[in-house]
Amino acid sequence: MTAYMQAKSANMLTAREMARRAKVKLDVFSVNPGLIYTNLLQPEAVQAYLRILDIVHPDGSPNHEKCDFWKTIPQGAATTVFAAFDPQLSDASGAYLDNCQIADHKVASHTSDPVVAEKLWTLTEEILGEKFTF
Q: Alpha helix locations (H) across 22-57?
């Protein structure tokens, strides 16, 4: 779970830094689609972990009584569609979106730190051997 959290943090930091660096009108967001019940959750190792957390039943189906944030595929897609098309976001580039709304208040403070975002951007460019300009 630590690697997942680090990847989500990097996603948020990258979106914020890309929004800051863009010299053209560019809407960039990090989006939380939620916990969507799909075939990606079917491998036995994943199912075993979800059973330990008690968020799926022994048969692998979602346990809505223990976990009220399961989403269907259309529900999970909704925030991405919101990010792509909702005009109210035109001045919110770099924001974190959850449940079809700006949710910057829900994130850890380090994911909003401009110094950390710039360091991650620079490190990414160094690792890839590529400078990104807009």
A: 44-52
Burial bucket for residue 86 (CB in 10 Å: 0-12, 13-18, 19+): middle
Which region, left, alpha or beta, applies to residue 28 given φ > 0 means left and ψ of -120 to 50 means alpha?
Answer: beta
| pLDDT confidence of residue 117 | 98
What is the chain's percent helix, strand, coil content, to nearest 5?
Answer: 50, 10, 35
**Domain regions of the chain by residue span:** 1-33+93-134
* Ranges of H-type helices in the chain: 2-21, 44-52, 73-85, 114-128
For residue 25 the two structure tokens come to 């009108």
For the entire predicted model, the pTM comes to 0.84
pLDDT tens digits, 83-114: 999 999 999 999 999 999 999 999 999 999 99
In angstroms, the Cα distances linking 5 to 51, 55, 107 are 20, 18, 11
What is the spatial distance between Cα 134 and Cα 122, in angstroms, rounded to a whole number? 15
Q: Is the distance from CB of 93 to CB of 17 less than 8 angstroms?
A: no
